[in-house]
């Protein structure tokens, strides 16, 4: 699934560099897939309602590094979308991706 995410990111980057646009139905499908994977992980990954310091092991730490990069990307897209509203359509996917990476990382601690 991570290679699918990588492909999605490349397609988004392509559109932002004036390549072919990502169809809205593709974005919707990607978002649905992410949410389904997130729900599946949550079934066996207790998150709880407390502050979590990530990095219990190397795999989780790398997931959290990736998540931090995605959160930075989300902030940059939000700022960039002020002058380029076409970017707004990617923000929900990027937001959900950061959530997925957090939960994925936590799944390596249980």
Give structural notes.
With 110 residues, the protein is an all-alpha fold. It is built from 4 helices and no strands. It has helices at residues 2-16, 24-44, 58-80, 91-107.
In short:
The chain contains 4 helices and no strands. The protein has 110 residues and is mostly helical.
Order of helices and strands: HHHH
Q: How many strand elements?
A: 0
> Percent of residues in helical segments?
55-70%
Give the terminus-to-terminus CA distance.
20 Å
User: Radius of gyration, rounded?
Assistant: 15 Å
Mean pLDDT: 92
Q: What structural category do the secondary elements indicate?
A: mainly alpha
The largest pleated sheet is described as:
none
Poorly predicted runs of 5 or more residues: none
Task: Work out the strand percent.
Answer: under 5%
- What shape does the CA trace take? globular
Number of helices: 4
Short descriptors:
4 helices, 69% helix, 110 residues, 0% strand, mainly alpha, single chain
Give the arrangement of secondary structure elements.
Elements: H1 2-16, H2 24-44, H3 58-80, H4 91-107
Helix pairs in contact: 2-4, 3-4
